[in-house]
UniProtKB/TrEMBL annotation:
This is AAA+ ATPase domain-containing protein. Its cofactor is Mg(2+). It comes from Tetracentron sinense. Keywords: ATP-binding, Magnesium, Nucleotide-binding. It holds the Pfam family AAA_lid_At3g28540.
Length: 496
């Protein structure tokens, strides 16, 4: 057996110099690696080595869903956050609560480190919320604190396809439904005094909290049903519009005297569809290009409203023609500019767009607007009928059956030519149904008498129309006052 003597042992200096040369080589290898192998790849190599040597092969797969995808928000993260709010169990120990000033409800979400277990088609899934803070120096020397937020979704590797193909799309759909349910409708207008700015700051918005609904509207029941069916078909029509190669938009023209419910109907449509409203006052615009910028800044699933279309561009077109008989210059805001843009670019760059024009005088509209195919439905809102009266009596006074004065009122109402707004105003004068209905009866008699007097005096046909004309003019004056007020104050919602 060979024995080692002390003399055979390497001397301390040899050991030290060998160590120094190994350490030197290591440093050389590391600096070469640092220089030639990209940072991410080094991390990957390291984790693979660690995985290979240290951890047993796992049957679990972890999907990392980060908040940011580059500089934009990751849609899957946003959807997961909303979806997981519905999955919080009583066992959760820490939750986050928040509320934006204009929201109605609290938002409760999981806090960092919390886990949520979910099940989908027999697959067990574990969600974990990760939130890490990091400090970095900005170029000016101050410390910036940034938060990296992500979800980790852990499940058995064998379900990878089903999770990617079915579970995540399911989470996206669910979150879209939840968002839709909690959506606060907005009314967008041009102006600078609103709290929120939308569409690149061109539009200002307020919450649209209008109580109008279809069942509260006094209008011809058949027209109401046809409109509701039409809207229903429209929102379900994605595939249809694609198939026939048409832009997914729909146009409605609402016409009738002031106070017959045109604006209320638009609010009811918005509530029914859960669509925001963009209220466009053409009188405030100077030229077609300004209009274009505004229209492009409107969002999908919205209703673009242009009220009193007869009072805005159409007249200007005519004035121009009357003045010189030539086409207005391109820079001018024109009806044809508006229609071309609505038919063309604007409608094809968005989805689920509804456009509504209103007018008190359909007869004064430019034929271009009435041409078939331009507005898909023309809806006439008119004076209060017996049916309308009963609906208003049930809404305002809670009378669902009959009342001793109904017979008399029904005999008067259709001849009196009163608007639903006038009837509603009478019904609101007293909480006591008897007194309110007596007041309405007197009002209807007075209206009928006024008409009869005019007839009995043998005034010409044109003059018979005078009270009606007066009514329209009064209505327009009211509207003007309302609009003038609105410009300076925050009364916009009351108009709707
Ligand atoms: N058809 C209706 N059904 C129920 N309420 C109505 C109806 N029409 C009008 N009203 C009541 O009258 C008010 C004014 O109506 P609205 O502003 O909708 O009329 P409009 O047709 O838009 O008038 P304008 O032509 O002056 O803009 C509404 O807030 C509502 O209370
Ligand atoms: Mg109106």
């Amino acid at each position: 057996m060979k024995m080692f003597s002390l003399a055979d042992m390497p001397s301390t200096t040899t050991v030290l110099s060998a160590y120094a040369s190994i350490a030197g080589s290591m440093m050389l290898v590391r600096s070469i690696a640092n220089e030639f192998i990209p940072h991410q790849f080094q991390a990957y190599l390291l984790s693979s080595l660690r995985y290979f040597f240290l951890s047993p092969i796992s049957s679990q797969l972890t999907l990392v869903i980060e908040e940011l995808d580059g500089i934009s928000r990751n849609q899957v993260f946003e959807a997961s956050e909303i979806y997981l709010r519905t999955k919080i169990t009583p066992s959760a120990e820490r939750l986050r609560v928040s509320k934006a000033s204009r929201e109605k409800n609290f938002t409760v979400t999981i806090e960092k480190g919390e886990e949520i277990v979910d099940e989908f088609q027999g697959i067990q899934l574990k969600w974990r919320y990760i939130c890490s803070e990091s400090n970095s120096n900005d170029p000016y020397g101050s410390q910036l604190r940034s938060e990296h937020r992500s979800f980790e979704l852990v499940f058995s590797k064998k379900h990878k396809e089903r999770v990617l193909d079915s579970y995540l799309p399911y989470v996206l759909n669910k979150s879209r439904d939840i968002k839709e349910e909690n959506k606060v409708l907005k009314l967008y207008t041009l102006g600078s005094f609103y709290d929120d700015a939308g569409g690149g700051g061109l539009w200002g918005s307020v919450n649209l909290d209008h109580p109008a609904t279809f069942d509260k509207l006094a209008m011809d029941p058949e027209v109401k049903k046809a409109l509701m069916d039409d809207l229903e078909r429209f929102v379900k029509g994605r595939e249809f519009y694609k198939k026939v190669g048409k832009a997914w938009k729909r146009g409605y023209l609402l016409y009738g005297p002031p106070g017959t419910g045109k604006s209320s109907l638009i609010a009811a449509m918005a509530n029914y569809l859960n669509f925001d409203i963009y209220d466009l006052e053409l009188a405030n615009l100077q030229c077609n290009s300004e209009l274009r910028r505004l229209l492009v800044a409107t969002a999908n699933r919205s209703i673009l409203v242009i009220e009193d279309i007869d009072c805005s561009v159409e007249l200007r077109d005519r004035q121009f023609a009357a003045a010189g008989g030539f086409e207005p210059p391109n820079s001018q805001l024109t009806l044809s500019g508006l229609l071309n843009f609505i038919d063309g670019l604007w409608s094809s760059c968005g989805d689920e767009r509804i456009i509504v024009f209103t007018t008190n005088h359909k007869d004064r509209l430019d034929p271009a607007l009435l041409r078939p195919g331009r507005m898909d439905m023309h809806i006439h809102l008119s004076y209060c009928t017996n049916y309308g009266f009963k609906l208003l009596a049930s809404n305002y006074l809670g009378i669902h059956e009959n009342h001793r004065l109904f017979g008399e009122i029904e005999g008067l109402i259709e001849n009196a030519e009163v608007t639903p707004a006038e009837v509603a105003e009478e019904l609101m004068k007293n909480d006591n149904a008897d007194i309110a209905l007596e007041g309405l009866t007197k009002f209807l008699k007075r209206k009928t008498m006024e008409r009869d007097e005019v007839k009995n005096e043998g005034v010409k046909e044109a003059e018979i129309q005078e009270p009606k004309k007066q009514k329209i003019e009064n209505g327009e004056e009211r509207k003007f006052v309302r609009r003038t007020l609105r410009r300076g104050t925050r009364t916009i919602c009351r108009r709707w």
